[in-house]
Amino acid sequence: MDHRAELLPHQQITDLKQAAERIRRAGRILVVGCSGGGKSTLSLKIARRFGLSYISLDRDVFWLPGWVTRDRAEQRRIIASRILEERWIMDGTNPSSLDIRMPRTDFVLWVRMPRLLCIWGAISRWAKWIGRNRPEMAPGCPEKIDLEFLRFIWTFEEKFVPRITAGIAEHGPDVPVFQLKSRRQMRELLDLLARPA
């Protein structure tokens, strides 16, 4: 099922140049999407380019050493504290916290790559970092991959997209959203952002 039409018409931005201009002006950007799609790489590049604080939900909110999940109330407390900062880019989907994140968000970048590309991204990331920690992951959480994680990626569109769409519409009805649907589109966006304003 295709959920793309469920975003409110005034939220959708379809022009790449317009998206780049929104990013240049935004103080607080939310980057959502499936694992393996390139959210973290994109977020880090934008953070460096525009001097935004980089907040990774995986590293800063969800995980404790040994792949232990932080208590839900503590997760929300950390998010509630971090969103008060003036300039940030937040990398992570977590539909259950959109109620506190969306009201502070200026712009949403939805990295919406095909699921086979996300599977490939997750596997190649694992091969690169096997046994080591990625910089955007919590300390003591070395890179891993298993069938449960691959199943999560495979079913992401049907299980999580309706929740993301509903969360954005309910908690950020006027926040513009741009969906990146290919690696080429992502490269073109980064090229536009690399140019002088």
From TrEMBL:
Top-rank taxon, per record: Bacteria
Species this chain originates from: Rhizobium acidisoli
InterPro entries named in the record: Cytidylate_Kinase-2 (IPR052922), P-loop_NTPase (IPR027417)
Protein name: AAA family ATPase
